[in-house]
Amino acid sequence: MTAPALTIAGLQVHCRGTRILHGIDLPAIEPGTLVALVGPNGAGKSTLLRSLAGLLPTTGSLRLGDFDLLRCSRRERAQQMGFMPQQLPDGIAMSVLETLLGALHAGQTGQTPGAIQRAHGVLEQLGIVHLAMRPLEQLSGGQRQLVSLAQAMIREPSLLLLDEPTSALDLHHQNRVMGTVRGLADQGRIVVVVLHDLALAARWADRLVVLANGRVQATGGPQETLTPSLLANVYKVDARVETCSRGHLQIAVDASL
């Protein structure tokens, strides 16, 4: 599939009279691009993602091609994007399969042909098809995180917004999830993901957006963006950026500043 470009200009978010995001401007994000939002705690990463998802009062311009994401209905937005929050709410008394079918049919009347097969296919991609009939409330934090990602993927949206999809996962599942996410971008989707792990971001993302204090500090490819100077200014660490034998960037922190 091929998605239109995502354009973000002058994006601002206010909360209780305080400005949280300060006029976010980004170059157009083209189909097939995986963008990682990175930065220290409190930088505004999740706020930016939630504003893109239409979950916060937001001003500015946010468009997916000709589609105005700030002025559309929730149903129209759901047809264009899939959103994965940091964690699923507690108290959902449904099986994993039921939650996926609910996400697939949200805002629709009637059943989608092949819905169960599609749900099983997404679970298979993430390596959790064996959990299909398990109650959500019996899953571990990492398993719930994978289910949340499956919910975002189930409608095959052109734009995926993922808030820390690997934070509760072991190394195997981190790699599997990021490989899956990379594959979704390669199919022509736009994927915007919040990550704390700079090594993961550098390995899998096409573009990094570095945030601090609600402002964009830098944006570009991992090689050009992750420099010792940026790490000192944004993260307050004395660090080296090294390339391992397989060509992946690694961050070696020597001291806090």
Give a description of the structure.
This protein is of the alpha/beta class and 257 residues long. It has 2 domains: 6-225, 3-Layer(aba) Sandwich (Rossmann fold); 227-257, no CATH class. It has helices at residues 45-52, 74-80, 96-105, 115-125, 141-153, 171-186, 198-204, 222-225, 228-235; strands spanning 6-15, 18-29, 34-38, 58-64, 67-68, 81-84, 159-163, 190-194, 207-212, 215-220, 237-243, 249-256. Strands 6-7-8-3-9-10 form a 6-stranded mixed beta sheet, sandwiched between helices. Strands 2-1-4-5 form a 4-stranded antiparallel beta sheet, covered by helices on one side. A two-stranded antiparallel sheet has the order 11-12. α3 (96-105) crosses α4 and α3 (96-105) packs parallel to α5. The longest helix has 16 residues, at 171-186. The chain is globular, with a radius of gyration of 18 Å. The N and C termini lie far apart (46 Å). Part of the ABC transporter complex HmuTUV involved in hemin import. Responsible for energy coupling to the transport system. GO terms for molecular function: ATP binding; ATP hydrolysis activity. It comes from Pseudomonas fulva. This is Iron ABC transporter.
**What is the overall shape?**
globular
- What is the name of the CATH topology of the largest domain? Rossmann fold
Name of the top-level CATH class of the largest domain = Alpha Beta
Query: How confident overall, as mean pLDDT?
Result: 92
Strand content: 25-35%
Total count of domains: 2
Count all strands and give the number.
12
In DSSP terms (H or I, runs of 4 or more residues), the helix count works out at 9
> What's the CATH superfamily of the largest domain, by name?
P-loop containing nucleotide triphosphate hydrolases
Question: For the report, how would you describe the main beta sheet?
Answer: 6 strands, mixed
